[in-house]
Amino acid sequence: MSSDFEAYEQDFGTITADITNKIGRIPKLSGEEKTQLVLNVDKQLEEVRELLEQMDLEVREIPIQSRAMYNSRLKSYKQEMEKLEKDFKRSRIAYSDEVRNELLGDDAGSSENQLIKLREERAHLLDNTEKLERSSRRLEAGYQIAVETEQVGQEILANLHTDREKIQRARERLRETDANLGKSSRILTGMLRRIIQNRILVFILGAIILLTIILAIYFNLRGH
Questions:
Q1: pTM for this prediction
Q2: 92 pLDDT exceeds 80?
Q3: SS3 of 29, please?
Q4: Taking the domain 2-142, which CATH number applies?
Q5: Collapsing DSSP states into helix, strand and coil, what is residue 224?
Q6: For a disulfide at 58, which of 5, 78, 84, 181, Cβ 3.0-4.6 Å?
Q7: Could you report the per-residue pLDDT of 103-134, keeping only the tens digit for each?
Q8: What ranges do the domains of the chain cover?
Q9: How far apart are the C-alpha atoms of 46 and 160, rounded to whole Å?
Q10: Torsions phi, psi of 185, nearest 5?
């Protein structure tokens, strides 16, 4: 996970350095070139916001013992992002005023108070728009986390169900094995009992035969 975070850090450093350079160039340009540069910076800022969201998600997956360090780094990147947005907002407001002045021409001087009011309203509108965008991105990130959590939960439940079935099958096999062992034990006990009975009978028959032989020899000797 930390390797992904560091990769995002590198992208963050590269893009923000380019944005800083472009924001500094905006006041020096004019016309279509300036317009294109403003649009380009706005697009890059959106890329940086997405990078910060990805970094935030990565930090949540980092082990707790290492998370504090990454949280601190992420916080500094967010502060840097806020500074870039403020710098860009100032340059964008100045650019909008410049365009408006070009359109109004000489009549702009007589409408200075209205322009100041419009500028304040525009700045306020931009702040609200950016706040809404940030809230929307946080909601999307939260929703994504919720979806991923639900998927993980479903996978865990599926695994538990599979494990339960395996355990039940193992128990059934154990019961069958135990029943077979009991049956085998009874068979072996019966065989052992018959073997002992046969040996006892053989011993008794042998004893009788031996006794008969001895008696026959005894009576034969007495007859002589």
A1: 0.44
A2: no
A3: coil
A4: 1.20.58.400
A5: coil
A6: 5
A7: 445 444 455 555 555 655 665 566 667 666 66
A8: 2-142
A9: 42
A10: -60, -40
